[in-house]
């Protein structure tokens, strides 16, 4: 006989509808976003089964999406960081276009300013984690709380 509280019930272990909250590192969310902007491949916050009420998301970098095989949930950093902060991410191409291409020092200064702007953006983004996200389930969207760590 199983536990009457249902805590040993394994029937929902692959159902993301069991999740009530996801703990995550704001640094992981920010690093995943920056990685996706600056590198090939994708970076997400990943939650892996078995699913239960409180879960932990960790940064995951990939080139091939394996969620069908693993049953994992991938949370895009653009879902986790507030829209207005995502929209303010500093654009290196614009900074370089504004620099005088004939002046190598101007290009170097533009790159240095971009690095500083990204660092400032990262600090803002760590403080701009949204309160909740919707997970797709067989029963439709399921909203869960996000709990920043640290």
UniProtKB/TrEMBL annotation:
Residues 1-21 are annotated as: Disordered. Residues 11-150 form the DUF8009 domain. It comes from the Archaea. InterPro entries: DUF8009. It holds the Pfam family DUF8009. This is DUF8009 domain-containing protein. It comes from Natrinema versiforme JCM 10478.
């Amino acid at each position: 006989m199983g536990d009457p509280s249902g805590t040993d019930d394994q029937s929902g272990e692959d159902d993301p509808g069991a999740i009530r909250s996801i703990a995550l590192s704001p640094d992981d969310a920010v690093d995943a976003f920056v990685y996706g902007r600056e590198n090939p491949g994708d970076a997400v916050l990943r939650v892996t089964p078995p699913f239960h009420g409180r879960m932990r998301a960790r940064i995951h970098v990939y080139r091939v999406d394996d969620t069908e095989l693993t049953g994992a949930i991938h949370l895009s950093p653009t879902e986790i960081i507030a829209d207005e902060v995502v929209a303010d991410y500093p654009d290196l191409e614009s900074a370089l276009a504004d620099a005088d291409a004939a002046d190598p020092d101007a290009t170097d200064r533009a790159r240095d300013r971009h690095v500083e702007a990204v660092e400032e953006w990262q600090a803002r983004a760590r403080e701009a984690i949204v309160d909740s996200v919707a997970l797709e389930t067989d029963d439709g969207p399921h909203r869960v709380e996000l709990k920043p760590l640290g």
